[in-house]
């Protein structure tokens, strides 16, 4: 049922997001956080971010990957919680990685929220 025009727009949007991403910090940056993402299709993706960056950057990075579903949420494994990566009415600015309590090395799970 998916309309090919729609799909194209999504790809363009993913491309735009990937162009807007801040550069990946070096591994020896004391402010860097290494995150391994587990995608719904069992792919693992690893990237570094900075503690001071907003969770939105993580969301945008994942969104820009072609393997990531259109709608998704990012979940920590233990304790299990959904990371607030997008602005909400209560919180117009998502927290930074540090405020979200992420450590220097994390494994996060990407859950597909796209309606079938």
Automatic annotation (TrEMBL):
Locate the region Disordered.
1-32
Keywords noted in UniProt: Lipid droplet
Which sequence ranges are marked TM in the entry? none
The Basic and acidic residues compositionally biased stretches are 8-19
Location(s) in or outside the cell: Lipid droplet
**What Gene3D superfamilies does the entry give?**
Phosphatidylinositol 3-kinase Catalytic Subunit, Chain A, domain 1
- List residues of the UBX domain: 28-110
Q: What is its main location?
A: other
* Name the record gives this protein: FAS-associated factor 2
């Amino acid at each position: 049922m998916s309309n090919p025009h729609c799909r194209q727009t999504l790809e363009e949007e993913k491309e735009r997001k990937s162009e807007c991403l801040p550069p990946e910090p070096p591994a020896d940056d004391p402010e860097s956080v290494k995150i391994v993402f587990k995608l719904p299709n069992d792919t693992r993706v690893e990237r570094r971010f900075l503690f001071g960056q907003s969770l939105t950057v993580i969301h945008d990075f994942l969104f820009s990957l072609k393997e990531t579903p259109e709608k998704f949420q990012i979940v920590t494994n233990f304790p299990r919680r959904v990371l607030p990566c997008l602005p909400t009415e209560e919180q117009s600015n998502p927290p930074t990685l540090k405020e979200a309590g992420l450590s220097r090395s994390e494994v996060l799970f990407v859950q597909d929220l796209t309606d079938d």
